[in-house]
Amino acid sequence: MWFFYMVAENAIHPSKWMKTDDAGLYCVPGDFYIDPMQPVATALVTHGHADHARAGHKRVFAHPQTMAIMTTRYGDDMAEVQIPVPYRESVEFDEVITTDSNSASTEQEQRKIKVTFYPAGHILGSSQLLIEYAGYRLVISGDYKRRHDPTCPPFEVVPCDVLITEATFGLPVFAHPPIEKEIQKLLHSLDVFPTRCHLVGTYALGKCQRVILALREAGYTKPIYLHGALLKLCDLYEREGIALGDIIPVSEVEDKALLAGEIVLAPPSALADRWSRSLPHVRAVLASGWMQIRARAKQRNAELPLIISDHCDWPELLQTLTEVNPSEVWVTHGREDALMYQAQKMGFKARALSLVGYDEAAQEE
């Protein structure tokens, strides 16, 4: 579906009022940051991953489930003021009048900056932010994906003039297979190696719960065993109404030999640490979009790499550009040059938006 918006003659382009500084992406007239990397007065948080959600802000606006994730991770006092914003609901900020030429109003005709939250399909509570100001609609995608995921609502196409999109997997080489195919690899491995404990490295928030539900959808009804670092967030998902089935902490299994032929989920770092040595005849499995790169799989000593990502692959990024159909695309978080070039070939204006403090290579995708 294609959408077109007419920009008013007196509109002010978002490049005049969206800036980056040491804290991150800043909306000047609204005086708020999006996913700031250091404590600020007002933060709008797209989702709960640690490279986007930090403690210490004075005010936080986020989807209620993102707020729950942040309090689970950082405590109830993670921000002085916590304002939950459900999907498709809006908050308005009074315009901060400045003396420079970038202000859209005078004191006599002060405008509002309207921000609406929409599903991003990345993890539980993940949101896109639509900012409406000075005649423009700007969407900040946050992290997102377009695939089926029973742990969160799907990505919603939001028409806009300017789209700020991530590009974590923004190279043509990244074309991720269906998650169902990757889960079948895991189940087949259990059949082939019935005496080996299959230790699956998976990020604690989002990926862990998605892998569990993908196993359930594939008909796997046996208990799934969890490293202690994954328990709190799985409990949160359960409280949010996402049933994960029979999950058991590894710490409750006295005889670890009983884990032969079972599936154990743990943080990726646990695959190489002393904790994993107590498990019987481990088969190292790693679930990540980066497993499409053989060198990455070898580097992480993954015997069974599973290509499972909570980000868009290359075809999905291009699908999103086509469906959103903005006038401009700003690219961040990853492979900026390739996606900018392709966006320009598709007829969009494109530029890079470099955010200080984000390092895609350090993310536990």
Brief overview:
One of its GO terms (molecular function) is RNA endonuclease activity. With 365 residues, the chain is an alpha/beta fold. The protein has helices at 64-74, 179-192, 207-217, 231-239, 294-299, 314-324, 336-345, and strands spanning 18-21, 24-27, 32-34, 42-44, 57-62, 79-84, 90-94, 112-119, 127-133, 136-140, 162-167, 197-201, 224-226, 247-249, 263-266, 282-287, 304-306, 328-334, 349-352.
Structure class: alpha/beta
Q: Using the coordinates above, name the CATH class of the largest domain.
A: Alpha Beta
Largest sheet: 7 strands, mixed
CATH architecture of the largest domain: 4-Layer Sandwich
Count up the domains.
2
Structure, described:
It comes from Alteromonas naphthalenivorans. GO terms for molecular function: exonuclease activity; RNA endonuclease activity. This protein has 365 residues and is α/β, with parallel strands linked by helices. The chain has two domains: 14-95 and 112-172 and 311-352, Ribonuclease Z/Hydroxyacylglutathione hydrolase-like (Metallo-beta-lactamase, Chain A, 4-Layer Sandwich); 179-306, Rossmann fold, CATH 3.40.50.12650. It is 20% helix and 25% strand. It contains seven helices and 19 strands. Strands 7-8-9-10-11-18-19 form a seven-stranded mixed β-sheet, with helices on one face. It has a six-stranded mixed β-sheet with strand order 1-2-3-4-5-6. The longest helix has 14 residues, at 179-192. The radius of gyration is 22 Å and the shape is globular. It starts with 17 loop residues before the first strand and ends in a 13-residue tail after the last strand.
